[in-house]
Here is the input.
Amino acid sequence: MSTREQIEAAELARLSLFKGVAEADLVPLAAASCRRRLNDGETLVEAGEPISEVHWLERGQLALRVCHDGRWVLVSSLHVGDLLGWSALREDPTALSSARAIGPAVLISMPASGLLDLLAGGSSQSQMLLRRLFGIATQHLDESRAQLLQLGHEGVISAG
Here is the structure.
């Protein structure tokens, strides 16, 4: 079972996304965020479930999988520094894939709403626009994933 630890604004400030953001501006987001430790094989999110957090992988690896035609398909492996949970930033946030730890993993998890507040300056209208923008990006990623899954039905390609 995963464990959670409180984090400080200085830890968020070290993430590439927040480079140049004053630590004082990150205090509210840090207060709502945590460091999460997963054991080998532990699932962080399940495809199709509602989600509300964005995560940065600090240590370890995660496998992103989807169930297609009754079988699990690996769609991506995430490594240190990768961001996951983009779907939490869109309207009607649900996980597009299941994320499972490959060995022990450590993540920084933060509420998507807090991240959106920081990005948007707290306006409900600008938060809505950001959610829509990320929704478009997420939809494009989902369409790409569907195309990759369809490629698997074409069989083996060989020269000659």
Notes: The chain has one domain: 3-153.
